[in-house]
């Protein structure tokens, strides 16, 4: 593939597996699968391009995490823990790669209109519950009063990959309508 398309200058690691359930309910297999997709997959993808980015002293990596990495969510312990791990991995990677001119940033979406989000709405939640917040779930609402579109998330990723962000590294761009209150 590289012979046909050339070296990899930009990498986006965007994968998400949401396994709902309390910490007591989750099986070892569910926990491991969540980490395999959300954390190990990012590490493996990055490993495939780091050497050549270092040698060329050029590159940009964006890791898509989640605002759940910093804001606890009931019945989402595996997802939140895996996204916290991948966020910290990206920060460490950013420090390691900076001397080579390679930028590493994070995009942390909040609730976004995706099949994964819609599946949550069939399990007793709804878009309006997410927007308004829920005292029962200890969940803040979304101050902008809307669910994000995938395009809004993609625009943040594209910006961080672009030359317009040439002096930005180690940044966590939260695109969540204010849901984390900038926590």
Notes on the structure:
- This protein has 183 residues and is of the alpha/beta class.
- It has one domain (8-175): Rossmann fold (3-Layer(aba) Sandwich).
- It is built from six helices and four strands.
- Strands 1-2-3-4 form a four-stranded parallel β-sheet, with helices on both faces.
- Helix 2 runs parallel beside helix 3 (77-98).
- The chain is globular.
- The N and C termini lie far apart (41 Å).
- The model has no long low-confidence stretch (mean pLDDT 89).
- One of its GO terms (biological process) is siderophore biosynthetic process.
Primary descriptors:
183 residues; 12% strand; Rossmann fold; alpha/beta
Structural category is alpha/beta
Strand content: 5-15%
What's the arrangement of strands in the largest beta sheet?
1-2-3-4
CATH architecture: 3-Layer(aba) Sandwich
- The number of helical segments is 6
Shape: globular
In short:
The protein is of the alpha/beta class. Helix content is 44%, strand content 12%. It has a 4-stranded parallel sheet with strand order 1-2-3-4, with helices on both faces.
